[in-house]
Amino acid sequence: AQTVTQSQPEMSVQEAETVTLSCTYDTSENNYYLFWYKQPPSRQMILVIRQEAYKQQNATENRFSVNFQKAAKSFSLKISDSQLGDTAMYFCAFMKGTNTNAGKSTFGDGTTLTVKP
Amino acid sequence: DVKVTQSSRYLVKRTGEKVFLECVQDMDHENMFWYRQDPGLGLRLIYFSYDVKMKEKGDIPEGYSVSREKKERFSLILESASTNQTSMYLCASSHIRGYTFGSGTRLTVV
User: Fold this and answer.
1) Which chain B residue lies closest to A99 (C-alpha atoms)?
2) Which residues on chain A are in Cβ contact (under 8 Å) with B100?
3) Chain A CB contacts of B102 below 8 Å
4) 3-state class of B97 per DSSP?
């Protein structure tokens, strides 16, 4: 079974600064996907960024980028130029790359990020 | 964009009631999921479905059942609601690009 660990329950950052959220995972699979999801207070959870394990290049989406270290099973999220709207709980998630598990993801426990003005 | 709609944002039910939480997605996704989210416990999978009438138990299925009669609709049923089922319930559909979540239903059982 896969496990996803987010070791930082809470973090804070000053507006306009950069912050990195950590995530490690454990799997014996070679083909998989990794995700970061964002859940703002009292709002819907949305997908932030996605990484295919077979790709060496780190994914980027505007101010969000990942540092994917496959050998170390590490998948951190970097938020540049933090904005007040980035305040949210962030979940790291793992999904096998086959269809046999019905697309089921394993989630970490989340990191609550507060951006301070 | 895929939309996942949960029928109620807030619900208050009495202990012992049968409760239905409805979830509808507007794309042709085969996979749908029900999670509950509690502070300090993250997201816990209750049930999931990979096709019409097909379902599998997740990590915490006790006290719940599901129904998937049509591809777009996945219902979570609390057979006899109890106070320990007070929680936020999240529905999601998935494809290889990730999950799309509904807005969540905050259920309070009194």
Assistant:
1) B96
2) 47
3) 44
4) coil
Ranges of beta strands (E only) in chain A are 3-5, 10-14, 19-21, 24-26, 32-39, 46-52, 60-61, 64-69, 74-79, 88-96, 105-107, 111-116
The alpha carbon of A92 is separated from its chain's Cα centroid by a whole number of angstroms, namely 4
- Ramachandran sector of residue B19 (left: φ over 0; alpha: ψ -120 to 50; beta: rest): beta
What does the block give as tokens for A76? 């951190």
Q: What is the mean pLDDT of chain A?
A: 93
Find, in chain A, the residue whose alpha carbon is nearest to that of B41.
A109
Residue A41 is which amino acid? P
Note the pLDDT tens digit of each residue in A71-114: 999 999 999 999 999 999 999 999 987 665 567 899 999 999 99
Contacts of B45 in chain A (CB under 8 A): 104
- Mean pLDDT value across residues B39-64: 92
Q: Do B30 and A102 touch (CB under 8 A)?
A: yes
Distance from CA of B2 to the nearest CA of A (A): 11
- In whole angstroms, how large is the CA radius of gyration of chain B? 13
What is the rounded CA–CA span in Å between residue B95 and residue A102?
9
